[in-house]
Amino acid sequence: MKYNITCVPKPRQTRADKWKKRPCVLRYRAFADECRLNKITIPEQGSHISFYMPMPKSWSKKKKASMLGYPHEQTPDIDNLIKSLMDAVMKQDCGVWDIRITKMWAYEGAIEIT
User: If DSSP states are collapsed to H, E and C, what string results for 76-90?
Assistant: First the structure.
């Protein structure tokens, strides 16, 4: 299943984030709300999660065409992306024991779970 949601890394939160409203925390909360609205589920075994990261608008059309589908080797790290997705859609993520994750460049951000 493919969801047209751009994943954001999970920020390190403090107690003050309840009232401070830092931009990174607001972005994560909006992402988590959108995941819940789309009813994303992660099986506990045998799933492959692909994160499609959007290319920067500053890139030329030629560079975008050449990078389409190539591995995304920049920040955010893949462990932060999977942590944010699992924390957004699961109360207890300790049940997931077999998962494969990839992170690639795309024209628009998306999450695909197979």
Answer: CCHHHHHHHHHHHHC
The Cα–Cα gap between 86 and 70 comes to 24
Q: Are strands 110-113 and 47-54 parallel, antiparallel or unpaired?
A: antiparallel
Q: What is the pTM of this model?
A: 0.89
In tens, the pLDDT along 32-43 reads: 999 999 999 999
Segments of the chain scoring below 70 in pLDDT: none
Token pair in block for residue 62: 């030629």
Directed axis angle between helix 23-37 and helix 78-89, to 10°? 60
- Tell me whether the omega of the peptide bond preceding residue 54 falls within 30 degrees of 0, making it cis: no
